[in-house]
Each structure stands twice: as structure tokens, then as C-alpha cells.
Amino acid sequence: MSTEPAVPQFAHRDPALPAFWEERFAQQFTPWNQTAVSQALLQFLAQQPAGKVLIPACGHGHEIPAFVQAGWQTEASDFSAAAVDIARRQPGVSPAMVVCADFFEYPPAFTPDLIYERAFLCAIPAAMRPQLLARWAELLPAGGLLAGFFLTGSIDAAARRGPPFFITEADLHALLEPVFTLREQAVPPDSLALFQGGERWMVWQRR
After folding, report:
1. Most buried among 4, 27, 96, 119, using CB within 10 Å?
2. What is 18-26+36-206's CATH number?
């Protein structure tokens, strides 16, 4: 007999819509959720001077306290109200730090030095990737950083029905390099099984 938990029945199938994510957070079906803060991020925070960070599509918001404790002025956002409620209850996080809004439309409270990427790019359909790139480029000043975790994979993985939506390494570079320069990359040793082998820690700098 299988011991795998049953997948809930969902009414919404389009990950571009808030209702898709609202259902999954409300029903606590979030297999992408990594409760521990990755060692790659902790090392980055230990080495990088504190500044202002935006965390779009923050989900459960486990990384928000790490940024706050490292001295960063932090604003996170998600367009799922259920996710925002969870993130606001993280230790040391005030409700004002987490905004319920569409990242593509709302005006952040400040110009960031860093945008933290954690499973946002792989959560949206491929057709939306240029839109996300444009938003990153719009918000980050020259010299600003886009740092976090990017899910790369083979052509077969990239064609897999998502989310997560894999992107080939070549396509990721083709997407970002017109606007960003890659400064650092590594394979994180503590990826979730869902992302194992495809996840990359990367730091990109706005041209």
C-alpha cells in the first residue's frame, strides 16, 4: 500500500493567477517549501554588506528572518493572502514587512540593492519569463544584485508540466545576460529532493 499523501483536488490550474497559489497554501500543499535556510544564503549574508532587499513571491517567508537578523531592510511580497499570513508569523517579522500584492504591479517602499530569487522564476510559465526579467531590471539600479536559487534542467525537464518549470542553463543565460552579469554560482548541498541536481545558487549583477 502506498504511503504517499494524497494530492488535494484543486479548482485552479493556472499558476499565473493568485487563486492557484491561494488554494495550495490554504490546503497546505507546498512540496517546494524548504523550512531550513540554505547554507548558500547564510554564507552570502555573512559576506555581503547589509542593504535593502526585496523578496518577491516569498511564500512561507522562511528566509525573511535571516535577512532581518543580518541587518537588511527587508520587504517581501506574495499575491497569495494565505502565504502572506504565514510569512508575517515568521520569527522577528513585522506585518509591515510582508505585502500582499502582485510583484509586477505594486510599487515597493524603496529601491533595492538586492532582489532575492527563491523559486519565483520556476513558478511561472515560460511565456512570463521576459516579464519577470523586465521587472527585475526596472527595480534594480545599476550594480544591484539578483541573488538566489535558479532551477535549471535538461530539455526533457524543461518541457515537464509544472510548476516547477525548469529552464535549461543555456536559456537561463540567454534570458539574463542582456541585463545582468553572472558574478557567482555554486551547486547548493542542501537542495530539496524536488530540486535535487538542478538547483543553482547564483549571484547576478545589474549592468
Report:
1. 119
2. 3.40.50.150
